Amino acid sequence: MKIYDFALDAKAVGDAGEFEGYASTFGNVDQGGDVVEPGAFIEGIVKAKKDGRTIPMLWQHDQREPIGVWVDMAEDTKGLYVKGNLLIDADPLAKRAHGLLKAKALGGMSIGYRIPAGGAEPDEKRRGVTRLKTIDLREISLVTMPMNIEARVTGVKSTVEAGKLPTLAEFEDLLRDAGGFSRSQAKAIAAHGLKRLIDQRDAGSEADARSAFLAALLR
């Protein structure tokens, strides 16, 4: 899953936990060189509603920490506008997030997503920029310091694109911060996945190992 962060633009934060704002805006190039195109969310939103599926509201991209519900989301000319309710009467963490939101102490909203086949293409006019045309939205989080997570993802992507593989520790950090995995889960995933690629690299097949890792990272 990939992460895309945005400075918080939350409006109308109510005493009962309701708030609204932009979870994503169009036209901004992130540190990884990705830019969301208008229309990117429409297909996924329609499909989720048709399937009766809701997009999770998470705290810091942690799958174990749902803090509320998104009651509405739609694209407008600026981006993906969302309305949500923090479950402040049922969850102490949601109540804390509500207080931080009202005090403007949260850094942003951040989306977790995947790109389906054919959903992205290089920008012909801007070198190194990828246009995201279709996004499979998996979750939207409230985050305190969004750039930390984005920098972690970008750092690993940059390492691979520079012709190297990340260390096990770097990859474990990425899994915990951006993927929401526990320390033990991150160690297990890294040991059974990345370690094999590192062993392959050490055996003299670094190009193949690098390609396999990058393909998995961007899937």
Describe the structure.
The protein has 219 residues and is of the alpha+beta class. It folds into two domains: 2-144, no CATH class; 153-217, no CATH class. The protein is built from seven helices and eleven strands. The protein has helices at residues 42-50, 92-102, 146-161, 168-179, 183-192, 194-202, 206-217, and strands at residues 2-7, 10-11, 18-25, 34-36, 56-59, 62-75, 79-86, 108-114, 120-122, 130-132, 136-143. The chain has an eight-stranded mixed sheet, sandwiched between helices. Helix 3 (146-161) packs antiparallel against helix 4, helix 4 (168-179) packs across helix 5 (183-192) and helix 6 (194-202) runs antiparallel to helix 7. The longest helix is centred in the C-terminal third of the chain and has 16 residues, at 146-161. It is globular, with a radius of gyration of 18 Å. The chain starts with a strand and ends with a helix.
Task: Summarize this structure as a short list of keywords or feature phrases.
219 residues; 30% strand; 8-stranded mixed β-sheet; 2 domains
Kindly estimate the percentage of residues that lie in beta strands according to DSSP.
25-35%
SSE sequence, one letter per element: EEEEHEEEHEEEEHHHHH
Distance between the termini: 7 Å
Overall pLDDT level: 77
Percent range for helical residues?
25-40%
Q: In terms of structural class, how would the helical and strand content be classed? A: alpha+beta
**How many domains would you count in the coordinates?**
2
What is the count of helical runs? 7
Query: What is the makeup of the main sheet?
Result: 8 strands, mixed
Assembly status: single chain
Q: How do the strands line up in the largest sheet?
A: 1-8-11-5-6-7-3-2
Give the CA-based shape: globular
Number of distinct beta strands: 11
Flag low-confidence runs: 147-154
Radius of gyration: 18 Å
